Amino acid sequence: MSYLLLKDLFKRSSELMDTPVSIAGWIRTLRVSKNLGFIEINDGSFFSGVQIVFQDTIPNFEAVSKLGTGSAIAVNGKVVASPGKEQAFEIAADAIEIVGACDSDYPLQKKRHSFEYMRTIAHLRPRSNTFSAVFRVRSLLAHAIHTFFQDRGFVYVHTPIITGSDCEGAGEMFRVTTLDPKTPPLTDTGAVDFSKDFFGKETNLTVSGQLAVENFCMAFRNVYTFGPTFRAENSNTPRHASEFWMIEPEIAFAGIEEDMRMAEDMTKFIIRFVLERAPEEMKFFNAMIDKGLLERLELVASSDFGRVTYTEAIELLKKSGRTFEYPVEWGSDLQTEHERYLTEEVFKKPVFVIDYPKEIKAFYMRQNDDGKTVAAMDLLVPGIGELIGGSQREERHDLLLRRIEELGLKKEDYWWYLDIRRFGGCPHAGFGLGFDRALMYLTGMTNIRDVQPFPRTPKNAEF
RNA sequence: UCCUCGUUAGCUCAGUCGGUAGAGCGGGUGGCUGUUAACCACUAGGUCGGCAGUUCAAGUCUGUCACGAGGAGCCA
């Protein structure tokens, strides 16, 4: 048995007019009077649902009339022009099969629910308009990312999810172990003996694929990793989750300029890709979630991104005459309020801030000739602030080693990372983009928990 | 982790000065031949987040814990 997807029904509606079709989906709403009724079903393949009209001439009229929202049905019928105002066509049903009835305590109603409530029914929320649209766009955005890089010859690298290095340096990690927490093996000094653990050493879930992807970059030139990352930080904000996806491209024989060009091209590409392929969803977000969304995305997709050095940015902020909650001073990191001022009020478009003080950036970023700054870049965009963070990597073995020692890191932990600086090292650069945050930016959704299918946050892993 | 605000019917909320609880939607039953969050009538449904305290009396005041949301920090 094969049912037409509603996506295809809508695409081919004029050609299918007055012809028989079979469709299947879940009831969104049902209205019935004495001897005719209306059902709207949606199968998740398309933003809109389709209206089914049924008369008491179908054999199970009584049973169908009693169905509630959420029931699964299959319909044989004919595509006909609709006299109603809300839709161009509808399905005149010849037969309706009740595939799966829905208990009366189905929690999704035909009205607006709060996002907070929807999070408590994460197994059902993809059946609602907003979440249905969010998760179709999420899938599309992943497609866009892969298309952008694959079309440009990048090699997709599956960097490990379980890592043996605790040196990725980006926050608290989740430990991976098969040891019994009640009676772990102990060393002579009483510490847990991880040499007896599954991998023979301490292992964790990855917080970033960057160090691994840099190695592959030294073999394939242009690579990217796109996968889940994990942070055990107790962050309780609408922008943080304990599990999230990151995109991390890395390019060899290239520097910060090429890195920025790639970031700009990719940002514009994914926006256009989603606008073109999910116009119904994007219109819905613009109307119901975030009124300025389409205008803002069009602006970003069509403008040349600005450039400013960190030092210049500090000057601009100091001269702004604005009082910020956090003081502006060379050497301290830009706060969200500073970033938004720069991109929204000074430049009024996306802007790269480059050449940050080395003290506030990671050890692997390439030192500039001034000895004070590193070749780092952050992409700031209106409405959200930082979207992408990247850098040219330090390819000079001696300088990288010195930086590791300055920061008190253990060079033994980085032996393989340092090795690629000895065995044919070359200038290379890359960036990281939080996939879920990019999706928030594209949809106007303001909480990361509402763009992830089953979000993991502190104290929440119910689903 | 810190600060602020919340938690009352399945959902969204109201509840006055402290005096034993209300609406809309949803559910159930019935009605209706073109509906669009259909409509109309009837109806069931509550340990007011937990625990302690003040009081003759607590949904209402106090303390505390849990959970949720927003802001901050950390960051993606």
Descriptive notes:
By secondary structure, the protein is an alpha+beta fold. Helices cover 31% and strands 24% of the residues. The chain is built from 14 helices and 16 strands. The strands form 3 sheets. The chain has an 8-stranded mixed sheet with strand order 6-10-11-16-15-14-13-12, sandwiched between helices. The chain has a 5-stranded mixed barrel with strand order 1-2-3-5-4. Strand 4 and strand 5 form a beta hairpin. Helix 5 packs across helix 7, helix 5 packs across helix 8 and helix 7 crosses helix 9. The chain is globular, with a radius of gyration of 27 Å. 37% of the residues are buried. The chain binds one RNA strand of 76 nucleotides through strand 1, strand 2, strand 3, helix 4 and strand 11.
Number of extended strands:
16
Task: Spell out the helices and strands N to C.
Answer: HHEEEHEEHHEEEEHEEHHHEHHEEEHHEH
Number of helices: 14
Overall 3D shape: globular
Low-confidence stretches: none
Quaternary state of this entry equals: single chain
Q: Which percent bin holds the helix content? A: 25-40%
The average pLDDT is: 92
Question: Distance N terminus to C terminus?
Answer: 32 Å
Percent range for β-strand residues: 15-25%
- Backbone structural class: alpha+beta
State the major sheet. Answer: 8 strands, mixed
Write out the strand line-up for the largest beta sheet, numbering strands in chain order: 6-10-11-16-15-14-13-12
**C-alpha-based Rg, rounded:** 27 Å
